[in-house]
Amino acid sequence: MRWFLSLLVCVAAVSALAAAKTLDIHFVDVEGGQATLIVSPSGQSILVDAGWPGFNGRDSNRIVAAAKKAGLKQIDFFVLTHYHRDHVGGVPELAEKFPVITYVDHGPNTETGAAPEELSAGYMKAVEKGKHLVVKPGDTIPIRGIDVKVVTARGEQLAEPMREAGQPNPLCAAAPRQPPDPSENARSTGILVSHDRFRFLDIGDLTWNKELDLVCPVNRIGKVDVYLTTHHGLNTSGPAGIVHALAPRVAIMNNGARKGGTPEAWRVVRGSPGLEDLWQVHFSIAGGKENNAPEAFIANLEEQCQGLGLSLAANADGSFQVVNHRNGYKKSYKPRK
């Protein structure tokens, strides 16, 4: 009997340890593109986008370094938001340097012409070496330990609200619209990542009207804890109608020194109800000190930088911590009340 009780204690201890593992998100600096590495408590991984091509393999090298530092031997799922150079361009170089098991996208490139076709060909050559999964809104990416829901893809959005959402959005009535966007930006594949009570939203470079469609007339997403600012903080995305409806506690801007971070986007994010902090991958030269976040919250202050990033560790109770790789500054956030 005593051995059986000891066994139960051991099992409980192991279960508690497993439950205590964090969801880790690493925001890799790819100079105004996107490369967001998500590591589940189970140890499985998702990489959202792979930055730019060229620059002597700069972006793929930074992604591989981040993956190895996280203890990974492969990328289980690569999620392509859309077929633009700063998101898909780095895929062929990455695939040559680090194993990628499954490629996830919204289907073929919707843009035509020599440059888009070149990007598509490079991507599909990499896809041929792994598995391929085409997703639509409402699909789930099968990764253990977290829930990863596709909320936008190929210009479409969730038909039904998430379980925690569905409330009418009073901001919709006064929300202005912009001219329709025919580009791949508006087709971005977006995901909502949930670790029990913690929620993180990444909708790529989705543009203004499609963002409003996601939360109007009802908010299909609900509130999130962390929001990756859409489209690097450009003012063609991120209207108050969605940002304030999401009410993030923390926003992270994956801007570059000379890309993204427009003053209008800063004002919208900072005016969001319940926002505690805005973190940035880069200091924006055009934004000046009056718009940029305090230096402690910025990973790279100089244009010619080391390419340092930000990391986040989230607990199942909704609490999380963000760390700046440049200066080691970290801040913890309690669960949402």
CATH domain fold name: Metallo-beta-lactamase, Chain A
Number of domains: 1
Q: Quickly give the CATH architecture.
A: 4-Layer Sandwich
Q: Count of DSSP E strands?
A: 17
Q: Would you identify the regions where 5 or more consecutive residues have pLDDT less than 50?
A: 1-19
Q: What is the CATH class designation?
A: Alpha Beta
Total helices: the number is: 9
Give the class from helix and strand content and strand pairing. Answer: alpha/beta
Q: Residue share in helices?
A: 10-25%
What's the gyration radius in Å? 20 Å
Order of helices and strands: HEEEHEHHEHEEEEEHEHEHEHEEEE
What's the shape?
A: globular
From the N-terminal CA to the C-terminal CA, the straight-line distance is 43 Å
Indicate the mean pLDDT: 93
Q: Would you write up a description of this structure?
A:
With 337 residues, the protein is an alpha/beta fold. The protein has one domain: 4-Layer Sandwich (Metallo-beta-lactamase, Chain A). Strands 6-5-4-3-2-1-15-16-17 form a nine-stranded mixed β-sheet, covered by helices on one side. It has an eight-stranded mixed β-sheet with strand order 8-7-9-10-11-12-13-14, with helices on one face. Helix 2 crosses helix 4 and helix 4 runs parallel beside helix 5. The longest helix has 19 residues. The protein is globular. The N terminus is likely disordered.
Write a brief structural summary:
This protein has helices at residues 2-20, 58-69, 85-88, 91-97, 114-127, 208-215, 240-246, 263-270, 288-291, and strands at residues 23-27, 36-39, 45-48, 75-79, 100-105, 131-134, 147-153, 156-157, 190-195, 198-202, 226-228, 250-253, 277-282, 298-300, 310-314, 320-324, 330-333. The protein is of the alpha/beta class and 337 residues long.
